[in-house]
Amino acid sequence: MARRPDHPVEPLFVDRWSPRSFTAEPVPDAVLLSAFEAARWAPSASNAQPWRFLIARHGDAHWEDFVGLLAPRNALWASRASALIVVLSVLQVERRGEIVANVSHSFDTGAAWTNFAHQALLLGWHTHGIGGFDRAAARERLAVPEDHAVEMIVALGRLGSLDTLHPEFHAGESPSGRRPLDETVFAGRLGLPAFASERNAA
Ligand SMILES: Cc1cc2nc3c(=O)[nH]c(=O)nc-3n(C[C@H](O)[C@H](O)[C@H](O)COP(=O)(O)O)c2cc1C
After folding, report:
1. What's residue 1's pLDDT?
2. What's 61's domain CATH number?
3. Residue whose CA lies nearest to ligand 1 atom number 29
4. Ligand 1 center to residue 146 CA distance, Å?
5. 152 lines ligand 1 (CB under 6 A)
6. What single DSSP character describes residue 182?
7. Cα 98 to ligand 1 centroid, rounded to whole Å
8. Is any ligand 1 atom within 6 A of the Cβ of residue 121?
9. Which of 51, 112, 167, 180 is a good FRET partner for 38, with 20 to 30 A between their CA atoms?
10. Is the CB of 114 under 6 A from ligand 1?
11. pLDDT tens digits along 157-179
């Protein structure tokens, strides 16, 4: 079902969704470079840019290692992506000559990943975030140092037809909806309506 925003937004924001049917075709470097470039320009506390990305392209020397990290249910579909990207973040930041904990390392890296996802979509490529994978194995097998967090894996690919997708996922293969804004944005305290239109409706 087509998504309908409740208020005007750039179509990009509702057009991005997370499919599971992918064609497994090779992804051009130009697409990857543009998407990573968009991620690069995300805002971050102290401009620390805590995000780091490890990429495996379908079938390359790293591919089986990356697929092997996925929870079996995710591997059923994500193994047909064109690239898998392990997203890391750096836990510390230098402030005024001192190395301190960066409390927003995950928050800022989340901003970078959505930039990536939106730029990829503008170029005709879909992304699907994956939290269901073995983080300890990722750290060990990909030699991720202790001062980096393992955040998520992103599957990137071209949308395939349903017959490329395991039947288990056919029913869920469409864009999801969202909670309304009046359950999300509040005036000063959780539960207090933020907009006059909501107060009138209550
Ligand atoms: C951090 C993160 C982890 C996720 N983990 C999984 C996952 O393990 N398996 C999966 O099928 N989808 C996963 N997703 C996809 C979400 O379920 C999906 O983004 C959400 O349902 C909203 O749908 P949409 O992206 O199509 O708008 C994850 C998304 C994010 C951002």
Report:
1. 63
2. 3.40.109.10
3. 129
4. 26
5. yes
6. G
7. 36
8. no
9. 180
10. no
11. 999 999 989 999 999 999 999 99
